[in-house]
Each structure stands twice: as C-alpha cells, then as structure tokens.
Design a protein that fits this description.
This protein is of the alpha/beta class. It has two domains: 196 residues, 3-Layer(aba) Sandwich (Rossmann fold), CATH 3.40.50.720; 104 residues, UDP-galactose 4-epimerase, domain 1, CATH 3.90.25.10. Helix content is 41%, strand content 17%. It contains eleven helices and 13 strands. The strands form four sheets. A seven-stranded parallel sheet has the order 3-2-1-4-5-6-11, sandwiched between helices. The chain has a two-stranded parallel ribbon with strand order 7-10. α2 links the parallel β2 and β3. The longest helix has 21 residues. The radius of gyration is 19 Å and the shape is globular.
Length: 311
C-alpha cells in the first residue's frame, strides 16, 4: 500500500534520487528541509504530482519536526552537516547531526511511525584493520560527523525499545553521482582530476595512489533506502553497509576518469608520504536482509558522472 513518507533533507543530493523513486511507486512524500542547499526547481517539478509537500524547516526545531511528522508512516532521515564542515564547526555539527537526529527519532516514536531509515556512514568505522569492513567490526569514529552518525544509531535503538518503530541505519560508503556538489568531501578528488583532464593536463596523484575508497552510485543508494523501508520488521533494527565491496585506488580512479573524459594522458605521481587508507564494504548483510546489491559499477558510474555533471 502507498505510504506517507517524511524525508528530512529531501531537497539535497540523495533526496534528488530517492524522492522520484518514492513518487513512482505511489507514495505521498513530505520533505522537511531548510533549503540551504536544496533545489527549488526540482521541488516545483515534484509538486506537480500532487503528492509532494515541502515543509521549509530545520531539524533542530523540535516543534517543527513534530508538526511535520503528523500522519507519516515512514521516515527517511538524510539531513546532516557534512564531514568536512563538522571539523570546521563542531558546534553546528553536534546541533544538527545529534540534536536534530534526536528530534526526528523522538517525533517518529511519539507519532507511531512504523519504520525509520537513517543515513549513517562508513565513517563510523574509522581506519579499518581489515577488509572488507563488517557491521560487526570495531567502531572508531574520528570526527564530530562520524561520532554523530554512531550516536544516531544508538538513539534509534533507544527509541525502538520504547515504541513500535523499527529502523535501519544504512552505512553509506563513498556516495557519488549526478547532482552532487563538486566540493563534496568524497568527490573532490574526482572533480580535481576531471578538471585537469578537460584542460589537457594529467591528474596528479600523491604517492603511489594506493589509497582507496568504495565508490557507490547514488542511484543504488536510493534503491537501498526504498528496500529498507519495505523490509520485514523482524529483520530490522540493524546497521547495514551499503557499498560495492570493491576498493578502488586513487590510481585506478585516475585511469578510469582518463578513459571517461577521453583524453590521451598518463597520471603523474608526486612523491609524497601519505597515510594509506583503504575502504571496502562487506555487503553480505545488505543482500541477506534487504535483498540489495549494487547495479552500477565504478567504470559505468564515473562515465555517467562525467557525461552529466562535472565540467
């Protein structure tokens, strides 16, 4: 049956890919967003369906959150301050990412919401000792953003014990795709490489380029959220990794983007000591609990990004 879904931060990057999927399946969507980075043109387009409402408010205001929550069956909590901004302004990060999340989860519990899907992050793991990174592995959040994501998971568990709501905390790995700001933390290296390539210059890689990330396309992220909304309650109340399970090194990324842009250059390596960090998700739980697996490989996804967005 169609549901009424509240999506906090729904006018942002991930929301721009999630909301159309919710509307396509017949849901009514209520977006709560302060519109500091939201796309009003897209909101106007969605409003044409007659099944979308924008509540221009901030998750830090508990009364506004409670009012927006009334009548909702499900909640997707995306609103957050980014990882790089959290270090520049820890106070704002705690205010939005912890206090704001608590407001959302408390209101969901009070209003009898069935399911909350929380946009958590692979950053809760910190620097991994082994790959792939499992949900049951050690957690070592290193920044206010990472600490807030871990705290959000714990708050969800707290409210679930005291109400009828069920939840999933989806630990997103390195999300990328059309619509993402070029200054976003995990796409800055992509944007830098593409800008140089389009100027006929080789990408410059620190060290040997062995540092890696698990890049997951935003379309697959949106699919995972929809599946988490629909998953059986008996399988809920868990964190779930959402990645590809493949760690793509910076050197591999550079060569993929060279091919996507279509230039004849070779990467240039800059001798420099770097702290080699690697990330790859264990996604067996996502397949088992949600029936989810990625559908867009890095090569295809980077070509999509180059074709549509960066330039």
């Amino acid at each position: 049956m169609p549901s009424t879904v509240l999506v906090t931060g729904g006018a942002g990057f991930i929301g721009s890919h999630l909301v159309p999927q919710l509307l396509d399946r017949g849901d009514t969507v209520r977006i709560l967003d302060n519109m500091s980075r939201g796309d009003r043109g897209r909101i106007a387009e969605w409003s044409g369906t007659g099944r979308l409402e924008l509540v221009e408010q901030d998750v830090r205001y508990g009364g506004a959150v409670h009012q927006a929550m009334a009548g909702c069956d499900e909640v997707v909590h995306l609103a957050a301050v980014s990882i790089n901004k959290s270090e520049a302004d820890p106070y704002e990060s705690v205010d939005i990412n912890i206090v704001g999340s608590n407001n959302v989860f408390k209101a969901a519990a009070d209003h009898g919401v069935r399911r909350v899907v929380f946009a958590s992050s692979a950053s809760v793991y910190g620097e991994p000792d082994t790959l792939p990174m499992s949900e049951d592995g050690p957690l070592s959040p290193l920044t206010p953003y990472c600490i807030a994501k871990h705290t959000g998971e714990q708050l969800l568990a707290y409210y679930a014990r005291r109400s009828s709501l069920t939840w999933f905390a989806l630990r997103f790995f390195n999300v990328y795709g059309p619509g993402q700001k070029p200054t976003a933390y995990y796409t800055s290296v992509i944007n830098h490489f593409v800008q140089r390539l389009r100027n006929g210059e080789p990408p410059v890689i620190d060290g040997e380029g062995a540092q890696s990330m698990d890049f997951v396309h935003v379309h697959d992220i949106a699919r995972a959220i929809v599946l988490a909304l629909d998953a059986e309650g008996a399988r809920a109340n868990l964190p779930v990794n959402i990645g590809t399970g493949i760690d793509t090194t910076v050197a591999e990324l550079a060569r993929t983007l060279i091919e996507a842009v279509g230039v004849d250059v070779e990467p240039r390596f800059r001798p420099r000591d770097v702290l080699v960090s690697r990330r790859a998700a264990d996604i067996s739980r996502a397949l088992d609990v949600l029936g989810w697996k990625p559908t867009i490989d890095v090569r295809t996804g980077m070509q999509d990004l180059v074709d549509h967005e960066i330039g």
